[in-house]
């Protein structure tokens, strides 16, 4: 099976339950990483709220979906409630769950590419070389996208370096920030 609905629900529950999880973790998820269409819609709402610097808990997500006439397509308030009550919201397993979603997405895409390549070879609409070239290029593009998005980093992993740099600047009387009229 090339999807796991329970993992998708857990990722969404974690995002809607744990404050600033998109900020804390450097996730490179996109809506299409989710197999379920309603999960894609919910994640798109979370992304949109996050990009507008708004909270993305379940109430804000429900409001966003309502405002954009997508609440029913996302399963309604009942489905959002079901996700939150029946799926584990965890920052501990979040990275593993996201990595699994990415892996499943890549497998689904690879399967689609290979099926299209096979169809091209069977139908003989294009030359064999062209069919193989298109299939190979598509697989390489998918592989490159996957390798660029594999690493998820927590802010806590690089914060000590930033704090150390700020302290060093302060000790050397170098302002560690931009001077504004508010200081």
Low-confidence residue ranges: none
What is the annotated CATH architecture of the largest domain?
Orthogonal Bundle
Classified by CATH, the class of the largest domain is Mainly Alpha
Give the distance, in angstroms, between the N- and C-terminal Cα atoms.
57 Å
The portion of residues forming beta strands comes to under 5%
> How many structural domains in the coordinates?
2
The overall pLDDT average reads 86
CATH fold call of the largest domain: DNAb Helicase, Chain A
Keywords: DNA replication, DNA-binding, Primosome
Pfam families: DnaB (PF00772)
Domain DNA helicase DnaB-like N-terminal: 2-102
GO cellular component, one term: cytosol
Features:
183 residues; DNAb Helicase, Chain A; mainly alpha; 66% helix
Topology:
Elements: H1 5-17, H2 21-24, H3 37-51, H4 58-67, H5 76-86, H6 94-123, H7 128-148, H8 155-171
Helix pairs in contact: 1-3, 1-6, 3-4, 6-7
Report on this model:
By secondary structure, the protein is mostly helical. The chain folds into two domains: 5-86, DNAb Helicase, Chain A (Orthogonal Bundle); 106-152. Helix content is 66%, strand content 0%. The protein contains eight helices and no strands. The protein has helices at residues 5-17, 21-24, 37-51, 58-67, 76-86, 94-123, 128-148, 155-171. The longest helix is centred in the middle third of the chain and has 30 residues, at 94-123.
Can you summarize this structure?
The chain is an all-alpha fold. It folds into two domains: 5-86, DNAb Helicase, Chain A (Orthogonal Bundle); 106-152.
């Amino acid at each position: 099976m090339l999807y796991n609905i329970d993992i998708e629900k857990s990722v969404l529950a974690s995002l809607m339950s744990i404050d600033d999880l998109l900020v804390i973790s450097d996730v490179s998820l996109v809506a299409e990483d989710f197999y379920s269409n309603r999960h894609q819609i919910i994640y798109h709402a979370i992304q949109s709220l996050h990009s507008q610097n708004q909270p993305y808990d379940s109430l804000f997500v429900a409001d966003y979906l309502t405002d954009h006439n997508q609440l029913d397509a996302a399963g309604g308030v009942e489905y959002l409630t079901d996700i939150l009550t029946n799926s584990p919201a965890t920052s501990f397993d979040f990275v593993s769950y996201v990595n699994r979603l990415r892996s499943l997405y890549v497998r689904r895409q690879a399967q689609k590419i290979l099926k299209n390549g096979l169809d091209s070879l069977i139908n003989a609409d294009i030359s064999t070389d062209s069919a193989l070239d298109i299939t190979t290029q598509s697989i390489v593009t998918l592989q490159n996208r996957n390798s660029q998005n594999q690493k998820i980093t927590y802010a806590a992993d690089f914060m000590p370096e930033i704090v150390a740099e700020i302290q060093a600047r302060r000790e050397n009387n170098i302002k560690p920030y931009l001077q504004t009229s508010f200081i």
